[in-house]
Design brief:
This protein is an alpha/beta fold. The protein is built from 8 helices and 14 strands. It has 2 domains: 12-94, 60s Ribosomal Protein L30, Chain: A (2-Layer Sandwich); 100-273, SPOUT methyltransferase, trefoil knot domain (Alpha/beta knot), CATH 3.40.1280. It has helices spanning 15-30, 53-66, 75-81, 122-134, 151-157, 161-164, 188-197, 259-273, and strands spanning 12-14, 39-45, 69-73, 90-94, 100-101, 112-117, 139-142, 167-169, 172-176, 182-186, 201-205, 211-212, 222-227, 243-246. It is globular, with a radius of gyration of 20 Å.
């Protein structure tokens, strides 16, 4: 079994699911949506040309629309460049994605947003995004440190959802660094404060001082904050939360759910409570 290479270009996207998601995001941008990442070129397995002509024809039409090129190359070239062996003979080399900073202007009146912080690897981050997007979340607030530095891996794990869900940077705050110098840096506390000022309830998933999620109100407008399974939510964020909920189990079990699983449960419970 081939070991995955996570040291490659983070803007390398593998497989048609990921490539279609990037192209859909470009279509949304063209129709007035948020900025999307640009595709620079696509490697397409030369051996697939006769087997999948419709797929290649679709890609060529999109290449004409969005200004990228398609190169038919041997499978060995793709294997050498790819992160994994599950690329299906398609690789897209993309530019970095431009994220806008969260502001009151972008917040819908009854939105559902997530902040996912402390997840240990890009796969779980992608699995979490897949679930929250499927459950109807309106956006993801990127913590100052997120796995979008491994965007291609996150996209594959999220089945393309990471390129489709709107993402926003935290607003900046002036913070004193360890070197004694004040700097303006993205601050997740500022994101929570901004959203609460806009009428959102900020709910975090944790154990201490919590109520059962099954007894909690998760009606919109809502921001759900999920921490990593090892460290949980940052202590400095807890004072900004309106409520802390826990996920009660169906039996005795002394271990935490993965952050991706917790995000999934919260997202679909919020969907259930907000059905119309």
């Amino acid at each position: 079994m081939r070991k995955e290479n996570l040291s490659v270009d983070p803007s390398l996207f593998e497989g048609m699911v990921s490539v279609r998601a990037v192209i859909r995001s470009l279509e949304r941008e063209r129709n007035g949506g948020l900025p999307a990442r640009r595709i620079e070129r696509i490697y397409y397995d030369r051996a697939k040309e006769e087997k999948t002509p419709k797929e290649l024809a679709w890609l060529r039409r999109r290449a004409d629309e969005f200004g990228f090129r398609i190169e038919l190359v041997p499978r060995e070239v793709i294997d050498a460049a790819a992160i994994s062996a599950s690329h299906g003979g398609v690789l897209a080399f993309c530019a970095d994605r431009e994220f806008i900073t969260l502001s009151a202007d972008v917040l819908p009146e009854d939105g559902l947003f997530f902040m996912i912080d402390g997840i240990e690897d890009p796969y779980n981050y992608g699995y979490a995004i897949r679930s929250i997007y499927a459950a109807g979340a309106d956006g993801l607030i990127l913590s100052p440190r997120s796995w979008m530095t491994a965007a291609g891996t996150v996209c594959r794990a999220s089945a393309g959802a990471s390129e489709l869900i709107p993402m926003y940077l935290c607003p900046e705050a002036r913070i004193l660094g360890e070197d004694g110098i004040l700097r303006d840096v993205p601050d997740d506390r500022e994101a929570l404060r901004l959203m609460k000022k806009a009428g959102y309830k900020a709910v975090g998933a944790d154990i201490e001082d919590s109520v059962s999620v099954w007894d909690a109100s998760l009606t919109r407008p809502l921001l759900l904050v999920v921490g990593g399974e090892k460290r949980g939510i940052k202590k400095r964020l807890r004072p900004e939360l309106d409520l802390i909920v826990r996920l009660d189990y169906g039996r005795e079990f002394g271990e935490a759910l993965s952050a991706a699983s917790a995000a999934s449960v919260l997202a679909f419970e919020a969907l259930r409570q907000n059905r119309k």
